[in-house]
Model the fold of this input.
Amino acid sequence: MSVLRLRASLLSRGTAGLGRALRPEGSACPGPEKGASWTWGRSYSVNAPEQDRRRDAGQVELLEVLEARVRQLQTEYVSEVTVNRVEVAPLRTGSQKDLEALGLVEDRAKGDASSVVPVVGKTRSRWVEKLTQEKSDLYKRQQHLEVRLKEETFCESQIKKGVRAFLSRKLKSTKRMPDTGKEKADIGEETAVAGQETAHDTVRQEPFQKALKVLERNKTYVVDSDPSGQMSEVLRHSGKQLLLLSCLECLLSQNRLTQASDLLLSYFGHSGGRRVLTLPMYNCLLKAWAKQGSLHQISTLFSVMNESGLTPDLVSYASVLECMGRVNADFKIIESCLKQMVTDGLQLENLFHKGALHKQERMMVLKAIQKVEPGFSPPPASSHKIAISPLLRDFYSKEKPASYPKLPLPLLELQKRFQQQLTLESAMTITIDSVEKTPVTKNSCQARNLLKDLKSQWRKALLKTFRETKAHMSTQHSQASLYPYLCLLKNRDYVDLMMQLDSCLPREFWESLESEATISSDFFTQEKVWPDVVLVQLGTHLVEVLVQAIRMPNNLFSSQTEKRLIPVLYHVYSFLSVKQIGFIKPHPAFNQLVAEAACTKLTFDSSVMPMLCPPKPWTSPVFGAYVLHPTKLMRCLDGTVQHQQQLENCPQEHLHSVLDALNLLGNCAWKVNQPVLDLIISIFNAKGSKKLDVPPPMSEAPIPPSYQFSKDASSLEKSRLRREIAQCHKTTREMYSLRTDALYKLSIAHHLRDQIFWFPHNMDFRGRTYPCPPHFNHLGSDMTRAILLFAEGKPLGPSGLNWLKIHLINLTGLKKRESLKARLAYANEILEDILDSADNPLTGRKWWMDVDEPWQALACCMEIANAVRSPDPTAYVSHLPVHQDGSCNGLQHYAALGRDVIGAFSVNLMPCDVPQDVYSGVAQLVEEQRKRDAAKGSSIAQVLEGFISRKLVKQTVMTVVYGVTHYGGRLQIEKRLKELDDFPKEHVWEASIYLSQLVFTSLGEMFSGTREIQDWLTRSADCISKSGSSVQWVTPLGLPIIQPYHKTQKTIVSGSLQSLCLMRYSDVSQKPNTLKQKNAFPPNFIHSLDSTHMMLTALYCHRKGLTFVSVHDCFWTHASTVDVMNEVCREQFVNLHSQPILQELSRYLVQKYCSKFQSHDSPKEMSIKEKLMLRTLSHVPERGNFDLQNVKKSTYFFS
Done:
């Protein structure tokens, strides 16, 4: 039976579930009923005197595990459970659970989940009573401590109430704008019960402070917080600030302006809350009151802002002037405002450029200004500043490159495609046909109709339950925290979220919300960031409603006349080691129904599909890619905010080159290689092919053996059978994952088979670029890459056919050590096999199947066949991308940074007649050392005779530049040794340790300069992170980078079903993770350099009119333009490393992290740690004598 993990973040876009371990080890909890996991470190005796001597913690931990195990066994025993309401299932008391855990009480669900039937004839023993009493005392002490900890919050709430009452009396004489945003009853299918909802949802104006206070309280348990309290004021309050800002935006989006103002003023009323208030909070209120034309409220907020010590910015003054324009304010008032604006150092002209005013706002602001200065008119937009990077001065100083977009399309065609994309994104989802063949039978038709009827019933049940729980929450203090957020949308929209219907939140719905509201349209056009805790609580609430509401008949597949409704979803527990994990598990009958329905449609979010028109160009960190769907310029984990803040604070001219490179990559148009796609689909539906990496269907999954033993079975036999069963289950899961992944890719490709499409791009925090659509893109596997062709074709020209042949041999992996001439000659020798593969791929000699990249090789065979059979091969228009790969690109950058002659020769920075293979070179050094050790009598060296190969060391050599440790290298080599059938398995452990040491030693000999640079970067990051800062740097193109590695923070979020553990690894309020910071800095720095090289190559290739895309250090273009791309690639690598990269990095780090103590009057005032940091960051490794100009002559630098 399939298991659905509880996903707490239903409202977020991320695909990673938040339902991991429900509670960390050792964390406090109010009760184990919430799904806590516990561990213990000793064995326990059942003897009562022995138990009496155990500590409280050990007793409770054992008891909780026993209780959890009992609940699990009971869940497995009970086939049907009926729960009337999630809220009415009371948590069982400790004494009840004590009895159940010891088998003294049986708990069976008969009509109600909380029914408990005692077993007659069993009595409580003395030690059970003692444990019960001790546990009760422990729980009371914990509750008492929590009450004391919350006293401060209670006092603060009383202060807020007093301040609010005082401000209300003070402003009572003034005319206040009434709240216009009263919640309206839903219409349509909700009309029949609108009267029931209105009593609870239409005129409620409860104080929002209570909701905010409960939200803060529900964050509950935070583990691993900063004990020193030395974080900055901003970082300490960042979580509360985000929560408060989201609350204000929530109120304003419902037009509850008065309540939003009261909330802000209540924080202003005491110094602790005043420090939490930020300028964006005031600005959102100013913009809202400006739309209302309430100059008095604007004036009050400005006074409060000044008393808080905050200086108004352009957004603040734009709101004031907009309000003055709406109410036609007096001349003197406007004049005073403009003078104050100049006093604050703000220029009037910038209002119309940096203020991002909408059309109506612009008119009102201009109206107010022209009342004082009649001749004023907004200045024309100034030309953008040229990027200051010396690498791009020539690029931006010359004439502009080809027009946008790259593929020449008529204007009408572009407009048509834009409308198609707009329609697709407005619908939010798209349903396409699956390529998996499923026979349609009478049973499947009946199952589909039944499933459709059930969904219709579930929607009504969900709507009813959601109304009831929402009304219940509006009256309960303990659950009021989510109520305002649940009022943002109509009830049916939340039901659509739970049902995942296509009609959820279309563009027209947002437009109607905006037209009904009178506040700034920014609330609807800009993405709002909500705290993770709010998202988790909303998600868990919707899950709880799902579990409670949806039901189905118990006799779906039988002819019984008696029908009884049973739940479709069950909340159950399982165990991972000693951790208790919660699951949402569907009923087996529902699984059977879905399987028999055999749905032939797949539904995707529109944001994961390729675009049907050229992407929006990236013009800022918040604008680009999809037409409607908000996309992050820098992808990161949910809750990570430092990257976006850095980008927004960075001068925009520093980002121009990065944004231009992303736009050029996304500007490449694609189409589907239909012959190859049809072949792959035919094999996919014919039970797949392991040889060709086409996953088989689940019918081919191994069947686990029966778990039955004879009476005299030994423990070894039982252990062997358990491992065999576990391996079968693991293989089945892997097959399902691979099959589903291939199904998504092939179905999307089939849907787009007659279309031209685009992949919008963004980047990670190091600057490495990625296509936004996750399933189908050119970064995929061999199968996916073979399906893709450039939509724009170019004639092969004089050298294009030769490059196609060389590209084919590169894909086979057969001539890696041979020259390009030898590869071309080999391609001509096997031309007959190439043509046979193109003509008869499945019935011929099948030469293409026995190579490294079979599907891409087949696509290339077909392209070569079409070219050689054309009347003029030089005029043949080719659409196939040709690749040029860097030769261990990370080591290439290290060798160039250190000017390492030996390292440069090993990674093809020096001209050679044949390509140098660094992997074979390392393998040769390892073998030489092994021979010397074997001669000295080393037993493990003697065992390894004949097993040292290029493949054995390749992965470790390739990843050592990206920060792999000795431990990681040992694991890689261990895996390779296990793949060798002839190698004795009893020596794998010892051999992997021995070989990993030899590999690292050999690399140190070959790349001495590389090791010095790595060590310097590691030491620098260690000093920086130990000082309490994260490592930051700026790439040669001006992109700011910060490493998001911090101490893990675990937050326990309580729920009715269970508790959830929210893990944060990049919370800026936590100390940096020193180990991750220092280990990740060298590889991340090199990644930022290879992305810089790629972006430079993309920009200058575009200047020369080339089509260019990349897969990190693998560059793609047309066959006819490979020579030009190779020239540009080498030139830009030389230009990049001609800059003093390490020296600039050192100066930046010293200025950023040592400027405080460098300003001391004398070096004696500096501490030892400060001196060490300054010395480490300033000491740049010396460089060798390698001449970078040799790279331009190296044929195999990229080949």
